[in-house]
Amino acid sequence: MSIRDELQSTIDTLVQPGKGLLAADESGGTIAKRFKTIGVESTEENRRAWRSLLLSTAGLGEFVSGVILYEETLGQCADDGTPLPELAARHGIVPGIKVDAGKIALAHAPGDEVTEGLDGLAKRLDGYKKQGARFAKWRAVYNVSDMLPSRLAIETNAASLARYAAICQEAGIVPIVEPEVLMDGGHSIERCAEVTEAVLHEVFDALHRHAVTLEHMLLKPSMVVAGKEHARQAPAAEIAAQTVCVLGRTVPAAVAGIFFLSGGQTPEEATANLDAINRTGRRPWPLSFSYGRALQEPPLKAWKGQAANLGAAQQALIKRARLNGAASIGRYDAAQEALAA
Ligand code: 13P
């Protein structure tokens, strides 16, 4: 198969009506933080048990077309010896891999951060592909204040995202480009809109300069929302209108799909906002979910690290996946939440 056909076939499998992605690619530090909330230690065995539980959930493939894994998970197996990427594939879920190496402070730009991980990336992709990965993810993070992010941070992160995406496409791996404008802080929704517009504009400029084929990539943005500490939290309809307005101004129609991150919204908020977004007017791209916390929080709470809670945890996961699947085509009704309880 040509690289082009390979990329197209992965896109066709990932972008399906009523389906989104499960982000299960927490780095060592982040998964330890999540496990701490349920009093579970982050050992290799516990991480394997948790991620096997997620990927062995019956029926998950009905609402989830792809899963983003962490490098360690690519090499782990379920209890019966099935490699976890293969387990996902058996459920009709395409395995993907987080390839960035995390963020560090951007030199000479106090408060800004930049993502590392480009060195040796092409070679690493070869290995990931042999382990079953068909797509990749790279996350850039933008802190927001009256002054942040700086022009330098916007330009530096855009250049890295674009280089990463180009390297992935050359390797036949579909890149997910993730610029996350953080919800931390007291900024207004208008400030978030302003920053997101500047960030996305720069990202697509860089993608163009690096000759990235927009039809063979996915965008994973944050929604346009007020900072968590801001006094006024906008209702879903306003978040939807602001988000679709900013995306409309910056994201070419050729992009294969937009899969939002949840970024610290509650599971219910993330579903309601996605639904509202899918009920707005002009939308040239499919708009779905690529949630980490908003999909994993309820099953994590049900699991508590106990094998006996496996069934309850998988039920909690399938419930959120089903509701988000409905929201991705604008068919979520808050009443469903009660019905599915
Ligand atoms: P959240 O949905 O928890 O923001 O995670 C998505 C993700 O992949 C972050 O990089």
TrEMBL record:
The top of its lineage is:
Bacteria, Pseudomonadati, Pseudomonadota, Betaproteobacteria, Burkholderiales
Q: Do the record's keywords include Coiled coil? A: no
Q: What class of enzyme is it?
A: lyase
Q: What is this protein called?
A: Probable fructose-bisphosphate aldolase class 1
* Pfam families according to UniProt: Glycolytic
Tell me the GO BP annotations in alphabetical order: glycolytic process
Q: Which organism is it from?
A: Trinickia violacea
- What superkingdom does the record give? Bacteria
Q: Which UniProt keywords apply?
A: Glycolysis, Lyase
Annotated pathway: Carbohydrate degradation; glycolysis; D-glyceraldehyde 3-phosphate and glycerone phosphate from D-glucose: step 4/4
Give the GO molecular function terms. Answer: fructose-bisphosphate aldolase activity
Family, similarity comment: Belongs to the class I fructose-bisphosphate aldolase family.
Q: Which reaction does it catalyse?
A: beta-D-fructose 1,6-bisphosphate = D-glyceraldehyde 3-phosphate + dihydroxyacetone phosphate
Note the InterPro entries from the entry.
Answer: Aldolase_TIM, FBA_I
Look up the EC number in the record and give it. Answer: 4.1.2.13
